[in-house]
# Entry
Amino acid sequence: MKVIYLGHSGFLAETEKAYYLFDYIRGDVPAAKPGKPLYVFASHSHADHFSNAIFQASFAESVSAYVLSYDIRKKFRRSRAGWLTRYGDRIVFAEPGKEIVFPDVKVLPLKSTDIGVAYVVEEEHVRLYHAGDLNWWYWDEEPKAWNRNMETNYKREIDRLRGKKFDAAFVPLDSRLGEAYWYGMDYFLGAVQAEAVFPMHFWEDYSVIPRYTEEHGHGDQIRKIVREGQEFL
# Structure
């Protein structure tokens, strides 16, 4: 499997059977091989996770299906966005807990702790996880009750994955959370087995990645992202 980091929370994963593009907002996406399906995912409507770039004609012609979070439909339905009409027959809106089935691929959306969903994608021999904004958000300025509720909600969703094995997982590691930056990543790694873990949502603060492995370990799993466009096998 090949994984390309495209910036912020955007990744392209290529398996033997398909391409999976997650939360793309920028970067160079290689042309898809003819006959190999391309599935495009958007976890929610925030501008750092969803962009109209995924509907550019030159790009969209190679897309087999769009999997978009339910909140994107709510946000753009009234505006009658052109892409809703143009590509409606290829768009599936994901809701938490409702499995989506394509030929050879299953998608299970989880409920985010912000808005939208996270995605579990399963092929016959490959399992991927993209968190979107599903994270253990902890902000010092929020009331203690808010932070406790966030912890409970995050653990509830990740516990649905307990014991599963992932070939690649894309998980937030956000230094804006201060000393709590590692909470979500650590809990995820304690609940599941993941061969390769790609930090994301770090707002170009690449230093948070070596900081995490130095302070908390998991250096054999965490992939050291240092630039946009970086490829991993």
